C-alpha cells in the first residue's frame, strides 16, 4: 500500500519510559475506511502505541502521519521540530479518541460533552452542533439522555456518549482504547454493537481490545503486538486460523 | 534600629508567646467541651452553642476583642487588657476548634461505640479509653494549625493596649518617627515563629503516622 | 434601650462603615480571584525557578499576620514613592494577602480535577486557554466552593483589622460610635450582626453551588 493513500501511516516509532523500551521500531499503514483491531497480551505496548497516534504519548523516535499530514512534529529526520501546542491541538481535531474509563466531562450535560469541542475548538455554530449532536445521540440510542449529567448514566451509556463525542468531531480516524474493559459484562454488548455499526459505515477506526469475537467479526485487519513490537498484521481469518508466530498461537489458544 | 528598641520588641515577643500559650491551653479543652455538649444533642444547649459558634466564626477577631474589652466592665467586671485579650483569644479559638472536635466525633466509627457498649464500658470510660485517644491523634494536624491561626490573630489585641510584638513595634516607631523598620522586624519575628510551628506540625504529624500507622480513623 | 437609639441615630456611620467593608472585600475579591487563579496556574505549570520562587512567596505570606502586612504596606509604600490613602493601602494589603491563600486553594483544586478529564480535553484539541476556561475552572468553581467561601469569610474578618490604619470600615464605625456615646454594647452588637449577615450571604452562595454540585455530580 502506498504511503500517501494510507489513513494512518507509522514509520519507525519507538517509545521508552526512563530507559525502558515500551515500543520498538513500529511501521504500520492502515487503509482509509477500515477497522483495525490491535490485540496482544497486557503490557505488550498496544495502548501506548494507540496513545502515540494522537501524541498523548510522545514517541521517542519515528513519525506518524494521519491522512498524509505529520502529527506531533513538523519536518522529518534531522529537521524535525516539535509542533507548537496550537498546531498540535488543531491536528488532533481530525483524530478522535474513546477512552477506557470514558473520561466524560462531569460538569457538562451529555449534549454539552458532545458539542464542546465542535463548538469551541472547531468553531461550528452552536445551533448546528446541537442538531448534529442530538442526531448522533439518537443513533446510539441516547436521544432522551441529551440533557442528563454523566453521573446519572450506566457505564455502557457513558461509553456510548463518549463515542458520540468522538463522532461529533467528524474525525478522519477514531481511536478506541479498550472501550469495553471498564464495563460490567452485560453492558459490553451495547457498546460493541455501536462500534460494529460504525464499522459498516466505513469509518476509519483503530480499536485496542481484548474482545476476540468482536475482533474476528468486525476487523478488516488484525495487528498483533507483543513485547513492544508488531508481530503480525493479517486479516482476521488468516490470523485466527493460521497465526504465523509462536506467540500469536499461544495468545489465541489462551484467549480465543 | 537601636538595641533598646529591639529589646522592647523582643519583650513584646515574650508577651505574645505567653498569650498564645495560655489561650491555647484554655481553648482546646473548652472547644472539646463545647463539642461534647453539642454531641449530646440537648435541645436548648445545642442551639445556643451552634449560634455562638456561627457568631464567632463571622465576627472579625479585632471586633471580638473590642467587644469583650468594652462590654465586660458594663457587666460589672473590671477587666485589664491582658485578661481581656486572653478571654477573647480563648473564645475565638474554642469556637473554631470545637468544629474540629465536632466533626471528629461525628465521623467516629459507630461500630466501635457499639462494641464499647457491648463490653459494658460506661459512657465516661468509652470517651476516655476509646474515643479521645483516637480523635486527638487523628486531628493533631488541624489542631496544631489552630495554634498558628491563633498566633496570627494575636496582633489584634494591640488595639486594647496589650504591649505584645505589634504594640511594642508601634511604640518604637512612634518614638523614632520611623515606623517601617520596627514593623519589618516584628513581621520577621512572627514569620519565624509561625514558620517554625508549621514545620513542627509536619514533623509531629509524620511521627504520629509512623507510630500509629494511620492518620485518621 | 438608649443603646439601640444611639445605633439608630448613628445609622449613617454604620452604613458608611458597612459600605466600606463591602467595597473593600468585593474589590479585593475582584482582583485576588483572577490573581489567585493565575498564581495557581504558575504553581502547577511553570518551569522550576519561577514556580519555586512563587511557592516560597506564597508560603511566606501565609506565615505573616495580616495586620503586620497591612502596616508594612501602609508605611512601606511611601518609602518607594507611592502615597496611597488608607483605603487604597488597605485594598493592596488585603488583595496581596487573600491572593496568597487563594493561590493555594486553587492549586489544590486543580490537582483534584480528574486526570483523564484533562487528557480527554487534550485529545479533542482544546487549547490551554479553553482547557482552563471550559473544563478546569467550571469544575473548580463547583467542587471548591466551600473552601473558597471560607476564604471569603476570612477576608471579611481580616478587613476589620484595617481600622487600625484608620480605614473607616464597619468595626471602625462601631468603635467610633461606642467611644462617642459611652455605650459599648449596642454599637458592637450592631456591627457583629452586620458581619453575621455578610457571612450568611456567603454561605447562601456556597449552598447554591452545592445544589449545582448535587445535580451534576450526584
Task: Describe the model.
The complex is a heterotrimer of chains A (256), B (217) and C (218). A 6-stranded mixed sheet of chain A has the order 8-9-10-3-11-12, with helices on both faces. In chain A, strands 2-1-4-5 form a 4-stranded antiparallel sheet, covered by helices on one side. Chain A has 256 residues and is an alpha/beta fold. Chain A has helices spanning 46-53, 85-92, 110-122, 126-139, 155-167, 185-200, 212-218, 236-241, 246-255, and strands spanning 8-17, 20-30, 35-39, 61-66, 69-70, 73-74, 81-82, 95-98, 173-177, 205-208, 221-226, 229-234. Chain A is 37% helix and 25% strand. Chain B has 9 helices and no strands. Chain B has one domain (3-212): MetI-like fold, CATH 1.10.3720.10. With 217 residues, chain B is mainly alpha-helical. The model of chain B has no long low-confidence stretch (mean pLDDT 89). Chain B is flat and about 70 Å long. Chain C has 218 residues and is mainly α. Chain C has 10 helices and no strands. Chain C has helices spanning 2-9, 11-45, 48-61, 66-76, 86-112, 115-123, 128-143, 145-159, 170-181, 185-217. In chain C, helix 2 (11-45) crosses helix 5 and helix 6 packs antiparallel against helix 7 (128-143). The longest helix of chain C is centred in the N-terminal third of the chain and has 35 residues, at 11-45. Chain C is flat, with a radius of gyration of 20 Å. The model of chain C has no long low-confidence stretch (mean pLDDT 93). The chains are: A alpha/beta (256), B mainly alpha (217), C mainly alpha (218). The B-C interface holds B 54-55, 57-63, 66-67, 70-71, 74, 148, 151-156, 158-159, 166, 169, 173, 179-180, 183-184, 186-187, 190-191, 194-195, 198 and C 60, 63-69, 71-72, 75-76, 79, 153, 156-161, 163-164, 170-171, 174-175, 178, 184-185, 188, 191-192, 195-196, 198-200. Chain A: Belongs to the ABC transporter superfamily. Chain A: One of its GO terms (molecular function) is ABC-type amino acid transporter activity. Chain A: It is a peripheral membrane protein.
